Structure formats: C-alpha cells, structure tokens
Amino acid sequence: MTEYLFISDLHLSADRADTVQCFLRFLEGRASQADHLYILGDLFDTWVGDDDRHPPIPEVKQALRRLSCGGAKLWLIHGNRDFLIGEAFCRETGAELLTDPSLIDLFGTPTLLMHGDLLCTDDQAYLEFRREIRQPAFIQHFLSQPIEQRIALAKAYRAKSGEANSLKSEAIMDVNQQAVERYLSEHQAERLIHGHTHRAADHPFSLAERAVSRHVLAEWRGEQAEIICVTPEGLRREAVIRN
Fold this sequence. Notes:
Blueprint: E1 4-7, H1 17-28, E2 36-39, H2 57-69, E3 73-77, H3 87-93, E4 95-98, E5 102-106, E6 109-113, H4 124-133, H5 136-143, H6 147-166, H7 177-186, E7 191-194, E8 201-207, E9 210-216, E10 226-231, E11 234-239
C-alpha cells in the first residue's frame, strides 16, 4: 500500500540530542517503509548555509541520503528556521525542494502543503520581518559572510525573535481562519497539512458547502514525536515508537 508520511518542526540541533537520535531511528525504521516523506519546514533549529558542517548536520544528511537511495522519495518545504536550505543540501540528501504552498493529489484528495507561517496573518510584524530576510539581496549578503559570523547573527536573530514572541498573545501567533480559507479556495484544495504553530490537531470544517480539513503537525521533542500518514484508506496520526 502506498504511504505518504508528513513531519515538521523537529528543530534539530546539537542541543537536542534526543530528538536527533529519535529522527535517525525514524529514518532507518518507519520512514524506510514508506514511499514518500514530506518534511514541512524547520527540520533544523537554524540553518546558516549549505556549507555548515557542525553536528548533527553531517549525520542527518547521511541518514536522509540513505533513505532516498533506498527508494523513498524525499520532499522538503522551507520553514522559518531553515529557509536557507539550498540546492547543495538537496544534492547531498536526494531531497527535492517544494514551494510554499504546494498542491499535491493524495489518492484523489487535492491537498495543500505549507510550513504554516504564511497563515499567521495576524502577526504582521513577523510577516514583514519574513519578507525582509527572504529578499535575494539579504540572503546573498548573509551567505557571503564567514560561517562563524553567520552562526552568531542567527543566534542574535533567534534571541530577538524569542523576546518579541514573549510579548505577543497566543492568538496572534496562531493561524488566521480567513487566511486558511483563502489558501484552500485559491488552490481548490480539500485538505491542508502544515506545521509551524506546534498545535497538533485536526480541524474539519465547511467551506463553500464543501467538507474540508486542516491538519497541524506536531513539534518533535526528545522521544515525543508524531507523524501524519496518508494512504488510500485515509489520514491518520502515528506516534514514532522507539525501536
């Protein structure tokens, strides 16, 4: 039976050794049984360029390469933490980058895939910051700097972002329902799968007299990990079980 697996928000880093090991076991085990693995952003807690070789990056890339060489198709959407992942990373891992959003057909159900931050339209300050740092000129300038300087800048950005988020309400950092409906309508999708908010849940609702649904992926923390699996029989959530 054909299986599509979806994950997001692993935030892999040297400081999250338990999560890294959980992900590596997942790639060797459950993921290797599937036909497709979609990573919908924030695989890494930060990404300062494809030339970064600090742990756990080499080990994670090798594991992803083994998965893709084993026959599973690997897909990737940028997150707000790792939007600088580029072509070199894809060559090394066998992953294919998708635009955000991307529409795919899952056994007859048009399904929209997103990281999820574009849905948080109430947080205008974040969206403006997002536009600024994704400008080609900004990216080119950032990547031209020595890697240790990039790492220092990324830490500073994260600290500033964390301070700003602490002053925002929970509601403003969640998705906007009108934005959800707009994206579904524009892409004529019946299902939306995304991450970013860390608020794992399934949200069925009606849109223009059609039954649609929104499915939020869970954040991975240590041994606590969850995936969404889609087969011809439907969509289900699975806990990632330690082998």
